[in-house]
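Supplementary notes for students who missed Thursday's class. We covered one full example, reproduced here. Read the sequence, then the structure, then the short commentary at the end.
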Amino acid sequence: MPKPVLDTDRLRLQRFSRRDHATYDEAARKSLPELNEWLPWARLDYEHGDTIAFIRESMQAWKEERAWDYSIRFKSDPERHVGSVSLWTVSKLGKIAEFGYWVRTDEHSKGICTEAVDRLLEEAFNSLGYHKVTLRIAVGNHASDRVAEKLGFTREGILREELLIRGNWVDHTLWSLLDREFRALRRGEVRGTR
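Structure (token representation):
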């Protein structure tokens, strides 16, 4: 099981608790116009009850060890939800995990998502022993594609009509990163070549 709190230099990733309802709800609602195109849950008629259901489900998933959702917060402003990053097992036998992420609209282009995903990758490969991490990103979501590229993921191809979003079947790009690739990138970072 991953640690309930993960830190970077400026961010804290922490598992959700009941007290996170208001901060998560505010961040989600503020970002709905942009997230609506890419994520099925980000409906324009999103309600506080959706937040309550998400946090309840997230807490239960931790207990059952089937998914691990983290709230992303700045260490300097720990009461403000700036995004989420999640990890779940796709194949126990293959040691494959999938990640999902989003960052609130008013915090885009600050490297928050890249930093948070990078920290969770470290946990997935080093502490949890995964062999492969995948991402499924809606075709056209260029900001999420840039996160995958910056972190060294390989674009494997297109998953046709992968997800139904607002009545439209949306193609997704499949990205992957292997444990040995992650370690090689980290070694390059230490030598200053990344």
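Commentary. Strands lie at 5-7, 11-15, 67-74, 83-91, 96-103, 132-138, 154-165, 168-178. The chain has one domain: 5-190. If anything here is unclear, bring it to office hours.
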